[in-house]
Design brief:
Order of helices and strands of chain A: EHEHEHEHEHHEEEEEHEEEEEH
Strand content of chain A: 25-35%
Distance between the termini of chain B: 103 Å
CATH architecture of the largest domain in chain A: 3-Layer(aba) Sandwich
Shape of chain B: rod-shaped
Oligomer: heterodimer
Largest sheet of chain A: 5 strands, parallel
Largest interface: A-B, 25 and 28 residues
Radius of gyration of chain A: 21 Å
Number of helices of chain A: 8
Structural class of chain B: alpha+beta
CATH superfamily of the largest domain in chain A: Response regulator
Helix content of chain B: 55-70%
Largest sheet of chain B: 5 strands, mixed
Chain lengths: ~260, ~650
């Protein structure tokens, strides 16, 4: 039985690590490294252009890390993902729970062969491939919830073929709608990303972003006016002219945070 | 009935008056001393009744002694005016008793009822006295019988009236003055039909009927807290006199037998008299103790103060907190004095007031409710000075001098314990603080150690070495050796607290070399440390975390990388070391909350080693890189290492 060649894209910002992984993969006859990305943005481009079977993504990459790549790649192009990490106990836990494959640095050849074998098995069965995609998204979510997430300075946003890195301090408000988040900047630009509000809030500075209601976050620095409404509620006006209502519970918090000297 | 010759009756009588005089003088002296001790006028409201009682008693006894004792013995009729004066004084005693009933009445209604009774009592006494003097001037038989009859009848009626008025009082309280007044009425009757042939004991009882009045007054006027001492002394004195009289009376028979008409002393008589004298003297302390015991245990039912204090002392020693000490005070007072309500109050007297037990009218600053009998102050060395308000004593008991001494002793014991506890508490707090410091230091050490053995760095380094083995084996070996020197440097941390700047720089160079191999041209490194400074001592691995931060947080998050520069210079007795990176930078305000742990542990270590003489200065702005500058006192580092 002749096995098909497994097409792989690898992404790591460190050349030695990338080369080391590439060298091991190239020694395998049934694997072809179709692309090497030096960062997250490049990885997304390569994945969507080359449509590999498997993407091996380094977790720690500057600006757009391995997890963001998974979030930002269009769903229909998302290959099987194998994460690579030097040391990250939270990632390892999230991946194991959700049966997502991962490799630890320095990558051992035996372990890599095993990962490739499993990837091939999943790819050959459509149901398993579907399952893997779901598990991947679960793993990414659970990792971001459990890890002491570093503060997010920029939010990567898909803009057609490009990735826009929006500095969080330019954000005026975030409004949730189902699985999507509508972001409005202080210059009144509007973006939509697929992210859970809770997960994003956890990675934003709580001193800068305040909840106004169940699905609304606002940048505290751009609130220019607070108008009392009947029934002890408030309505706030932002620097960009946006008007947002404040829920009953958050009105109380708002009072204590903003309105008390 | 008596074997004693008829003269014995007179001797007993004389002895009785003498004893009475001494007792009343003692009473006057005690009131005097108490008033003088408090620096209050002698005839203030408080204490005037006992004083009046004492004075009346002295006048009565001295006068009666003159009238019945000396006068009758010598066969000379005493001056009528002296007799009138004596009986006049005696006649006032029951009025004072009635007056003392008013004092301490709480309700105005009660006072309204009793006030006419008092006025009546004094009027009775005044009329009787006037009758005595009238009889004396007119040369009638002394003492005046109508006056005595008036006293008997009047005070009997008054007693009955008071019994009705005070019917709500407990019997125990009424009993004392009812008995006293009754005895007085009967004794007045005795004088009213006085003849010289009564039995000696009838004479004695009749003439000393004023004593129960004194006790009644002292009992009513509870503010006279020396009543117990007076009672003890009085009982001891009376017992001693009775004993002495009995012994010497018994001795008269052999003495009479040995009497030598020539007037020469029989040696046996001398021995007997000296023996009797010795027995009397030696018996006095025993009698006094016994009297004290009888008064404390039987009459006043008081606890054994010494025992209470001893138990309180050990209980307070065992108390570990101020509330526990206060609880012990409350417990002991409940057991010893029957004080049911003990509650903490604010100390309203100034620091200058040294009194530990405040009672009577002096508790006014606390605006006490009617129940507060005493305020106990704990004179601790430092504020706050606790104070306790004591409620009323069980069964209407009054605070007596022994009780006050007990309260004062307890207060002193408790204050000393609280002082000790406070000092001890301070020491414990200091120990806890020191322990906290040590714990922090240990934690910082552990964290620093873990930061050095950063597994992320280690695995990335090994990955790099793996790559180099495939592509450039000599460089792989070189990197491996640098990794071992980094690990060695990190492990050295556990053995020495200080190392030279040179050693530290070598370690940092090795570390940066490994990172350079990993990040390649994304990381450029420069180290600028003058050779002259390489011998300076600095805390081990203090700088390495700063360099690692610069790489990990400053440069790694940036795709284009940047430069790290480590430099050292000496200036004005300071060693200045700066770690500069051209990385992403951060908002210092946010860093304090988010990623400041590593920096804080460095700041902690600096403080531990150099106190305020070392500084850690961080300058950073988002997108503009970061400068961290350490300023260490150059010399004290060397000293710290030497010691």
């Amino acid at each position: 039985m002749i096995e098909s060649i497994l097409r792989v894209v690898i992404a790591d910002d460190e050349r030695p690590a990338r080369s080391f992984l590439g060298a091991v993969l190239r020694s395998m006859t049934d694997v072809k490294v179709v692309g090497e990305a030096t960062g997250g943005a490049e990885a997304i481009q390569l994945i969507e252009r080359l449509r590999p079977d498997v993407a091996m993504l380094d977790l720690q990459m500057p600006e757009i890390d391995g997890l963001s790549v998974v979030r930002l790649v269009r769903r229909r192009f998302l290959p099987l993902v194998i994460f690579v990490t030097a040391f990250d106990e939270y990632a390892v836990k999230a991946f194991e729970v959700n049966a997502v494959d991962y490799l630890t640095k320095p990558v051992s050849e035996t372990r890599l062969r095993e990962a490739v074998r499993r990837a091939r098995e999943r790819l050959e069965r459509a149901d398993l491939k579907q399952e893997a995609a779901t598990q991947l998204r679960e793993a990414v979510g659970s990792y971001e919830r459990s890890a002491p997430a570093p503060r997010l300075d920029r939010i990567p946003i898909r803009q057609k073929g490009d990735i826009l890195l929006l500095p969080v301090m330019q954000l005026a408000s975030i409004v949730a709608e189902g699985e999507l988040l509508h972001l409005t900047t202080i210059r009144q630009e509007r973006h939509t990303i697929s992210y859970r509000l809770k997960d994003l809030e956890a990675r934003l500075d709580p001193a800068k972003f305040i909840r106004l209601g169940r699905g609304v976050l606002a940048n505290i620095d751009v609130i220019v006016r607070v108008t009392p409404m009947p029934g002890g509620l408030y309505s706030v006006r932002l620097q960009n002219g946006q008007e947002l209502d404040v829920s009953r519970i958050q009105s109380r918090l708002l009072r204590s945070r903003l309105l008390q000297l | 009935m008596s074997a004693v010759p008829s003269n014995a009756s007179r001797i007993v009588d004389l002895l009785g008056f003498l004893t009475g005089t001494v007792l009343y003088l003692m009473l006057v002296a005690m009131v005097w001393r108490e008033r003088a001790g408090e620096g209050k006028p002698l005839f203030s409201r408080r204490g005037r009744l006992p004083l009046l009682t004492g004075l009346c008693g002295v006048v009565w006894n001295v006068g009666a002694m003159a009238a019945f004792g000396i006068g009758a013995a010598s066969g000379v009729e005493p001056p009528a005016l002296v007799v009138a004066l004596a009986f006049g004084a005696l006649g006032f005693l029951p009025a004072v008793v009635v007056h003392s009933l008013l004092e301490g009445r709480e309700t105005a209604a009660e006072r309204r009822t009793i006030r006419p009774a008092i006025a009546g009592a004094y009027a009775l006494s005044a009329v009787a006295t006037a009758l005595q003097f009238l009889a004396a001037i007119e040369g009638q038989r002394m003492p005046s019988r109508p006056a005595l009859w008036l006293l008997t009848g009047g005070f009997t009626a008054l007693t009955l009236l008071l019994l009705i008025v005070t019917r709500r009082q407990p019997i125990s309280r009424r009993g004392v003055w009812v008995v006293a007044l009754s005895v007085f009425a009967v004794s007045a009757l005795h004088f009213g039909r006085h003849d010289q042939n009564e039995a000696w004991w009838v004479e004695l009882v009749g003439h000393q009927a004023s004593l129960p009045l004194v006790l009644a007054i002292l009992h009513q006027d509870y503010r006279f807290a020396l009543a117990d001492i007076f009672l003890k002394n009085a009982i001891a004195l009376l017992t001693l006199i009775s004993l002495g009289f009995a012994l010497f009376s018994a001795a008269t028979v052999p003495l009479a037998a040995w009497h030598d008409p020539s007037g020469a002393w029989d040696p046996r008589a001398i021995v007997l008299l000296i023996g009797l004298w010795l027995v009397t003297v030696l018996a006095f302390p025993v009698i006094r103790r016994a009297a004290g015991h009888v008064v404390d245990r039987v009459v006043l039912r008081r606890p054994d103060y010494a025992q209470v204090l001893a138990e309180f002392g050990s209980a307070v020693e065992a108390a570990e907190t101020e509330p526990a000490v206060v609880a012990e005070i409350a417990k002991s007072l409940r057991l010893a004095l029957g004080v049911l309500d003990v509650r903490p109050v604010e100390d309203r007297l100034g620091d200058g007031d040294q009194r530990v037990a405040v009672w009577g009218q002096d508790i006014r600053p606390w605006l006490p409710d009617a129940g507060t009998s005493l305020v106990m102050r704990l004179r601790t060395v430092e504020a706050p000075h606790p104070a306790l308000a004591l409620g009323p004593l069980a069964a209407g008991r009054r605070l007596l001098s022994g009780d006050l001494h007990l309260v004062e002793s307890m207060s002193r014991l408790a204050s000393r314990r609280i002082d000790l506890l406070r000092v001890g508490h301070e020491r414990v707090e200091r120990n806890v603080r020191e322990g906290e410091m040590q714990r922090l230091a240990a934690q910082a050490e552990l964290r620093a150690l873990r930061a050095q053995l950063n597994p992320h760095f280690l695995f990335n380094a090994l990955t790099t070495i793996g790559f180099l083995i495939q592509t450039a084996p000599p460089r792989a070996l070189d990197t491996l050796l640098r990794l071992t020197s980094v690990l060695r440097g990190v492990l050295r941390r556990s053995t020495s607290e200080f190392s030279t700047l040179g050693e530290e720089m070598d370690l940092i160079a090795s570390y940066l070399e490994i990172e350079h191999a990993r990040f390649e041209d994304r990381l450029s490194v420069s180290i600028d440390v003058p050779i002259a400074l390489r011998d300076r001592l600095i805390p081990t691995l203090l700088l390495q975390p700063l360099v690692e931060n610069a790489v990990k947080h400053g440069l790694a998050p940036r795709a284009s990388g940047g430069a790290v520069r480590v430099s050292a210079r000496a200036a004005a007795g300071l060693l200045l070391v700066a770690v500069t990176d051209s990385g992403v930078g951060f908002d210092p305000a946010l860093a304090a909350a988010a990623g400041g742990v590593g920096l804080r542990s460095i700041a902690d270590r600096l403080r531990v080693h150099y106190g305020a003489k070392a500084t850690l200065d961080i300058r950073s702005r988002p997108g503009m890189g970061t400068v961290v500058e350490l300023s260490l006192p150059a010399e004290s580092g060397a000293r710290a290492a030497a010691s």
